[in-house]
Design brief:
The protein has helices at residues 8-13, 38-44, 52-61, and strands at 14-16, 22-25, 47-49. By secondary structure, it is an alpha+beta fold. The chain has a domain at 1-17 and 45-65. A three-stranded antiparallel sheet has the order 1-2-3. The radius of gyration is 15 Å and the shape is elongated. The two termini are 19 Å apart.
Length: 65
């Protein structure tokens, strides 16, 4: 049986934690940053965890974590 292929677009955007949750970056940190407050930009730097059905969909694209 051949190996399963990882979706490379998903692999660049998501990663799995040690317990198998899906980690992602927050959106909105690429451009038009001058009008966003410092506090908001600081919070956008942090990772967050995908929830529920979204995580199940992403895990299918990352068969080997």
């Amino acid at each position: 049986m051949p190996k399963m292929k990882t979706n490379k677009g998903a692999a660049k955007r998501f990663s799995l934690t040690g317990r198998g949750k899906v980690k992602r970056y927050k959106a909105g940190k690429n451009h038009i940053l001058t009008k966003k407050p410092r506090k908001r930009k600081r919070r956008l730097r942090q990772h967050t965890v995908l929830s529920g059905v979204d995580a199940q969909r992403v895990v299918k694209l990352l068969p080997y974590g």
